[in-house]
Amino acid sequence: MQKHPGSTPSDKQGTALFQGEQLGRIRQRLLRHARVVVRDAALAEDLVQECLVAILEHPEAHRGQASLSTWATAILKNKIADWYRSPHQRRRVPVHDDDEIYDDPLEAIYDASGHYREAVPAWEQPDGQEAEREMMSVLEACLRQLPPQIGRVFMLREWLGFETTEICQQLGMTAENCRTILHRARTGLRRCMTAHGHSGWNAT
Amino acid sequence: MNPLHSCRKVAELLSQALDEPLHAIDSIRLRIHLRICGNCSNVEKQLDMLHKFAPEIGAIDLNDEPEARAPAEARRN
Fold first, then answer.
1. Minimal CA–CA distance to A200: which of A139, A145, A109, A118?
2. Which among A51, A96, B17, B28 is least buried, having the fewest CB atoms inside 10 angstroms?
3. Which tens digit of pLDDT belongs to each residue from A119-154?
4. Which of B40, B46, B53 is the best residue to mutate to test the A interface, defined by the most A CB atoms within 10 Å of its own CB?
5. Which chain A residues are Cβ-neighbours of B11 within 8 angstroms?
6. Average per-residue pLDDT in chain A?
7. In sequence order, which ranges of chain A are alpha helices (DSSP H)?
8. Which residues 6+ apart lie within 8 Å of B43 measured at CB?
9. Which residues of B touch A121 (CB under 8 A)?
């Protein structure tokens, strides 16, 4: 889908914002994020669509130094949070899949006495924008490798900033369940990033 | 009872601490363990970084990601 830039012909700045294939690229990025947080692919499309419509209708709202995709992401986060908080969405959120949650190979990282089998390396703080971008793209890639339910709960908590009590309520999970899922998400991300990230953002 | 948590338990508590206040006793045992355990200290720092950077997903431009950059540059040149 391509929204024609001409849909806001009266706004010079708006037209300029959406030249070329920028909109298509932004849409792809938004979809990637939305799909991690929202299980239903069609729903993710809807939310991204709403977000793009909001942008195209009010391009003048884009101000300051934020890049277009940064701005679009902020709008998308609001749309997704609103959707999760809307009273009508509950029945559309499937109850957790137990096998997805509990079929988890991460336990292999500890020995019988609960100590790490392998040393945990220190990560370096990303030094500069380039290293930060590198780290973010590893983070995004690792996030997509998590089991969907686990990635979704992580994104609700850490990306959208929902309280765990709210996540439990919205997804119909127990507090213990929620805790376990977040722990597994973080452990999975930590290990994935350690495995794939180091050469990337260690370089100075 | 072992006054120190295992690393496994510490990892759980480190995650939990990012979401809710810990019980005082857990919190104390956690701090003692972290002081003497390098692995768990590194885990703590890694989790802090995840916590710090996860909200930035999408907010930091990845225009330089290879699949996005390569075609755009080719066209421009």
1. A139
2. B28
3. 999 998 888 888 888 899 899 999 999 998 899 999
4. B46
5. 183, 187
6. 80
7. 12-17, 22-37, 41-57, 68-85, 98-102, 129-145, 148-154, 164-171, 175-202
8. A120, A190, B7, B10, B11, B14
9. 42
